[in-house]
Amino acid sequence: MLIISRTITLPESELVERFLRADGPGGQHVNRTESAVELRFDVLNSPSLPDDIRARLLARRDRRLTGDGVLVIQARRFRDQARNRDDVRERLVEIIRGVLVPPKKRVATRPTRASKERRLVGKQQRGKIKQTRSRKPDLE
């Protein structure tokens, strides 16, 4: 059981783990052991997630999310499998907790008259600076 919040928990049956050979340091040992972990979580078909959280998770522009709505996370930071399993599960919890709070709605505002004038004055000053850089044609 993976605890996300007081109201959301993910059962082990919804998490699919696959173990891979990790690259990086470790000598010959790294060639024989499968210490990297790939965790797959089906966001689209998960009965444990409320609809609003599922929608926010699927709306994220995350390259780890497949077209089928499956979140794929890999962990190969550590040399042993148990630490990589813990790491990948913590990262899944962080991703889901990141969408628990709905984003604030943006309130449309208009620029003030003073800010418009400041912008125009700044543009005029910048234009004068650039004008002084140009060479005047020689009059003969």
H/E order of the elements? EEEHEHEHH
> What is the CATH C level class of the domain at 2-97, in words?
Alpha Beta
Major beta sheet, strand line-up: 3-4-5
The CATH architecture of the domain at 2-97 comes to 2-Layer Sandwich
Number of strands: 5
Give the averaged pLDDT, no decimals.
88
Query: In percent, how much strand structure appears in the residues?
Result: 15-25%
Termini distance?
Answer: 88 Å
CATH domain fold name of the domain at 2-97: Double Stranded RNA Binding Domain
The percentage helix is: 25-40%
CA radius of gyration is: 27 Å
Overall form: elongated
Structural class: alpha+beta
Low-confidence stretches: none
* Total of helices: 4
In this structure, how is the largest beta sheet organized?
A: 3 strands, antiparallel
Summarize the structure in words:
With 140 residues, this protein is α+β, with helices and mostly antiparallel strands. The chain is 36% helix and 16% strand. The strands form two sheets. The chain has a three-stranded antiparallel beta sheet, covered by helices on one side. A two-stranded antiparallel sheet has the order 1-2.
Please describe the topology of this protein.
Layout: E1 2-3, E2 9-10, E3 15-20, H1 29-32, E4 36-42, H2 51-59, E5 70-75, H3 81-97, H4 113-133
